[in-house]
Amino acid sequence: MVVTVGIDVHKGTHCAVAVDEVGGQVGKPVTVRATEAGHLALLRWARRTGEDAVVRFAVVDCRHVSTRLERALLSAGATVMRVPPKLMAGARSAARTRGKSDPIDALAIARAALREPDLPTAEHTHASREVKLLVDHREDLVGVRTQMQNRLRWHLHELDPELDPISRGLDRSSELDRVEARLRALPAGVVVRIALELVADIRTLATRIKSLEKELSGLVKQQAPQLLTLPGCGVLTAAKLLGETANPSRFRSEACFAMHAGVAPIPASSGKTSRHRLARGGNRQLNAALHRVAVTQIRLDGLGRTYYQRRRAQGDTTMEALRALKRRLARVVFNLLRPTDTQTGTCLPAAA
Questions:
Q1: Percent of the chain with pLDDT strictly greater than 90
Q2: Left if phi > 0, otherwise alpha if psi is -120 to 50, otherwise beta: which for 303?
Q3: Were 163 and a residue from 82, 156, 233, 256 both cysteine, which residue would form a disulfide, CB within 3.0 to 4.6 Å?
């Protein structure tokens, strides 16, 4: 017998409901605090509820509030599946119980996990978790720098429209030097002072971003150098692929990996006509990384461009041919990443 525990996660509390193999509720729901003590209490409750049964956990895929819970469950040797919120919503709308509450949501999560047995598990190798955290941190810093650059441009426009930097120029030290020199030549004032502070902050962020890029370059070359042999895949894209894929062995096949990445074709036809449409689900970060590789390969003179042009010649639209190329790239990336699983060792009981 297998008991599936659906967990609806929140910042302060977690609500869990257990179901049997046919979706029938087992026992009563439980709500625990989102603390280490609460996680241990949840594990004890699950073991009592699923006595003499295999217990697995299904958690709604909301990483900001579920990461610590997933880490505790994985540390205890449990199997943790991630349920996309849209699957939970579908199960809730089809249930006989009306309304919305934490127990109703937890029950919907458990039943969605039963209905979709191939959901990805929460799992990261030591290497992939480190890369993902660094990639996410760098992207956050880039976002903060972009906000500062936009504010600086408006202050420069207020001071003198001719001070407007060139497009993407504020990413370069030479352009920042020019802007700073012209600002110091202006009469002192609050706007000038704020603009100079923004220039200094942008410099600091640029240094930290470059340092992270250098660190990621070393990690990628150490852990997945084979990705860099793929045309159109640079260091940052390779780091994104490595971090978002996590442990490649958690996917049963390259088709499951393509589905997870949102590049698998979705049937959109009836009768004798066979058509497919673009997938809108899956891991959008992984999808974006494959998209960058595909767009770059189309511009280069290589196998990717040849395949894209052949699909266009067969009657595919631009988007259909691009989707087909991304699906093909998913197979290539999966095959390139599989050796990494045996090289990086055991899995870390955490989920970034």
A1: 55
A2: alpha
A3: 156
CA distances from 202 to 159, 186, 231 (A): 19, 20, 32
**Contact by Cβ (8 Å): 333, 227:** yes
* Residues 10 and 23 sit within 8 Å (Cβ to Cβ): no
Collapsing DSSP states into helix, strand and coil, what is residue 267? strand
What is the token pair recorded at 50?
């699923």
HSE-up of 302 (CA within 13 Å, CB side)? 14
Q: What is the pLDDT of residues 99-141, one digit of tens each?
A: 678 898 899 899 888 888 777 777 766 678 889 999 999 999 9
User: Which tokens in the block code for residue 343?
Assistant: 């090289």
How, if at all, do strands 54-60 and 2-9 pair?
Answer: parallel
- Furthest-apart CA pair in the chain: how many Å? 79
Distance, CA of 35 to CA of 252 (rounded, Å): 33
Q: What's the pTM?
A: 0.76
Do 183 and 192 meet the contact criterion of CB atoms below 8 Å apart?
yes
Amino acid identity at 126 = H
Q: How far apart are CA 3 and CA 330, in angstroms?
A: 33
Which structure tokens are listed for 314? 């067969």
H or E element, residue 342: helix 318-343
DSSP assignment letter at 124: E
At 213, list the tokens. 């890029």
